[in-house]
Design brief:
The chain contains 20 helices and twelve strands. The chain is mostly helical. Among the domains are: 52 residues, Orthogonal Bundle (Helicase, Ruva Protein, domain 3); 100 residues, Orthogonal Bundle (Arc Repressor Mutant, subunit A). A hairpin with a 3-residue loop joins strand 6 and strand 7. The chain binds glutamic acid.
Length: 475
């Protein structure tokens, strides 16, 4: 048999934004298509006119774009396909695959309530299934005529084989009384028309699948392969929600996460490849397979996400890192033309930032003078004993022909040796003097970034500071 071309779809409803759960679904659909050189389709399921919003459509499209999960086809909006849905409903009514149901909402509600009291599964009782008369003055709904007996077997790629009895499924409403089609129906028409081969989605849709398969059979179609992804839970075991952190994927962009890191984190939620944690996009595409997805729920761990972000920052190409850092500097009012290049700071700081936002905060002293030195750091490092070594290194710095790491490191080392102290004993006071605090990249890197003139000016201030303190102490 000729191998079929894989076609997957991500089918979000714009009743909400793109969040971690839906982004993971999109990622798995995208990866599966990429892995098999197939096609990834984006379908916006916007038939719920009351709850769908333009803002959510934008959130989904922006989020996917930021993550780099571009669709090969689409976005296709279901609201633009109403004609097609109407046509199939008419055909099914004609062929007896669907029927008009005139039962009032009150009757159906009461039916359910009575079934609940009797401890039965709630279901429509099929009252109108074999009715052929028309009830004047009532706008009927349309129901799918589900088979009464037999079973539907799902060979789910994640869950394994799941069997449903048709006797447990009732006749689903496929068109509301105002004529608008419902989710399960529009989904299968689209899966069929779009020639979807693999439906990868959240396992909250597992219960819909037997009905969808029955409807596909009614269409004369072969059902696609299904893979239902387990839920993502918060660390407290509850369904992931706002309470567990950012919900809109765009919030992570704001917070300074890299899109590659989000994808890297998401790919590991329920999927593994040996014990590898850090994946490039190419590695994900190469190794991803839907059969390797774990069937138990995975839980969201913000510390791990931060760690993965940090690893991705460490591994990112310099130019890229400089580019993505730029908006974060702007946001806090730093002008990158007033100091080192963005690439140089990104390189200097990549080892020590969890997020781009944190990185921007910590590079401030490369661009702006600080108001005052951190009190604790000053107390510990800017003491009278270090006055002379600082004066000496200041002098040596002024004579250096080139402001380069190697020359700076050599000058510090030689000065330290000449005072009989180790390099750290001099390096740390220099760091405090030029950054105003006690943490920074290696001292030679830090000084290169700050630049010669600012370094000397700040050493001068620190020297004055120590002298003033010495005076105070002797007063
Ligand atoms: N629109 C559905 C949702 O957002 C997804 C349907 C599907 O993947 O079949 O939950």
């Amino acid at each position: 048999m000729r191998e079929m071309t894989v076609r997957t779809r991500f089918a979000p409803s714009p009743t909400g934004v793109l969040h971690l759960g839906s982004a993971r679904t999109a990622l798995f659909c995208w990866l599966y298509a990429r892995h098999h050189q197939g096609t990834f389709i984006l379908r916006i399921e916007d038939t719920d006119r009351e709850r769908s919003t333009e803002g959510n459509v934008k959130a989904i499209l922006d989020g996917l774009q930021w993550l780099g999960l571009q669709a090969d086809e689409g976005p296709i909006f279901q609201t633009e396909r109403f004609g097609r849905y109407k046509q199939v409903i008419a055909e099914w009514l004609e062929e007896g695959k669907a029927y008009y149901c005139y039962c009032s909402k009150e009757r159906v509600d009461k039916l359910r309530a009575d079934q609940r009291v009797r401890g039965e599964k709630t279901r429509y009782d099929g009252k109108c299934r074999d009715r052929s008369d028309v009830e004047e003055g009532v706008q009927p709904v349309v129901r799918f005529r589900n088979p009464l007996d037999g079973v539907v077997t799902i060979k789910d790629q994640v869950r394994g084989t799941v069997v449903f009895q048709n006797s447990e499924l009732d006749d689903l409403i496929i068109a509301r009384s105002d004529g608008t089609p419902t989710y399960n129906f529009t989904a299968i028409i689209d899966d069929f028309d779009m020639k979807i081969t693999h439906v990868i989605r959240g396992d909250d849709h597992l219960n819909n699948t037997p009905r969808q398969m029955n409807m596909l059979t009614a269409l004369g179609a072969e059902p696609p392969v299904y893979a239902h992804l387990p839920m993502i839970l918060g660390s407290d075991g509850a369904k992931l929600s706002k309470r567990h952190g950012a919900v809109d994927i765009r919030d992570y962009r704001e917070q300074g996460y890299l899109p590659e890191a989000i994808l890297n984190y998401l790919v590991r939620l329920g999927w593994s490849h040996g014990d590898q944690e850090i994946f490039s996009i190419d590695e994900m595409i190469k190794h991803f397979d839907i059969g390797d997805v774990n069937h138990s729920a995975s839980s969201f761990n913000p510390e791990k996400l931060l760690w993965i972000n940090q690893q991705n920052i460490i591994n990112s190409p310099t130019e890229y890192l400089g580019q993505v850092l730029m908006p974060f500097l702007k946001e806090i009012g730093l002008d990158s033309s007033s100091g080192p290049t963005l690439q140089d700071v990104a390189d200097g700081f990549r080892e020590r930032a969890g997020t781009l936002r944190q990185m921007a905060q910590s590079v401030r002293y490369c661009y702006e003078d600080f108001e005052e030195i951190d009190v604790k750091a000053a107390k510990k490092n800017l003491r009278p004993v270090i006055l002379e070594p600082l004066q000496a290194i200041r002098g040596t710095f002024t004579t250096l022909p080139a402001w380069k790491r190697s020359a700076i490191a050599k000058a510090i080392e030689e000065t330290a040796v000449s005072f009989g102290i180790n390099m750290g004993k001099l390096g740390q006071p220099i760091r405090v003097a030029v950054t105003g605090g006690s943490v920074s990249p290696p001292i030679d890197v830090t000084l290169v970034l700050i630049g010669k003139d600012k370094t000397i000016a700040r050493l001068d201030s620190a020297i004055e500071f120590i002298k003033a303190r010495r005076l105070q102490a002797t007063d």
